[in-house]
Amino acid sequence: MNFKIFITASLAAIPFPALALEANSHKRAAAIRTADAAVTTYVSALAQCESTMKQGFGGLWIMHRDIAIASLRELHQDSDAGLQQYNGIYQSELETGNSISDLSKCPEVLEKMMQEVAVAESKLRATHH
Length: 129
Prior knowledge:
Organism: Pacificibacter marinus
Protein name: Lysozyme inhibitor LprI N-terminal domain-containing protein
Number of strands: 0
Radius of gyration: 22 Å
Helix content: over 70%
Number of domains: 1
Shape: elongated
Keywords: Signal
Signal peptide: 1-20
Largest sheet: none
Strand content: under 5%
């Protein structure tokens, strides 16, 4: 009889794999949304800063553009889908107009955005387990 109680108690302590998978899928979905929002904001800032950055910081702007495109490709795991999203966000932002009030701060803004994308991507990679 004690053996039966021990087995029942032991089984109760084992977490159900389905619940763990469900919790992980929620974390992963949240991490994907966060990474997507960070990259979208980054691309929006790139569009707003293009004219300012190309005048004195052309190489830096190109580096940021390449990082944003690579982030979208990794997020979508498809180079064409990532590039299409980049172009869509970029064109939409160009049509909307600038929301960065001081375009002289573009290098700092883009650096901050790049760091936020890196943090979001690392959190997303952590959900692969």
